[in-house]
Amino acid sequence: MRHPSLIPLSHDHHQGLALALRCRKQALGQIKPVGREGFEERAKEVKDFFSKNLERHFRAEEEVLFPIINSCASESQQMVEDLIKEHQQIRRQVAGLGEKKALSKTLFDLGDLLERHIRREERELFPIFERRVDVAQAQRAKKEIEKILQAC
Ligand SMILES: [Fe+2]
Ligand SMILES: [Fe+2]
Hints:
Layout: H1 7-27, H2 36-72, H3 77-96, H4 103-132, H5 135-150
Helix pairs in contact: 1-2, 1-4, 2-3, 2-4, 2-5, 3-4
């Protein structure tokens, strides 16, 4: 079971994985409407999810979760650096959805990266938090994460 401090982030991950799959399927023509209309529909869905969830989700991880992991488990620094780079790449891909060109490739790549990123956080990063972070730190993290996720 997920640590209570991480549940809101895991909830976003669940939605993110479903969206990542839709992006890849859309790019492959497996979801109707196929072609340009479908690509644009999916691109809008991604942009909405990014502005309503993912932007704040990334901030909560970068400002709260990653620094805690770095302080409690210094051997995880490389993974945290990789995850930060992936956030930047995902941000660039979302911005790239504004361009009409190569929309299906951007959707496919974004779906692929988003899924790998989320799975790494769920399978590797979150278990480190659950094993290494003490109760007081976890409590503080919970409050700070919730504050960022609820910000307008
Ligand atoms: Fe992340
Ligand atoms: Fe995440």
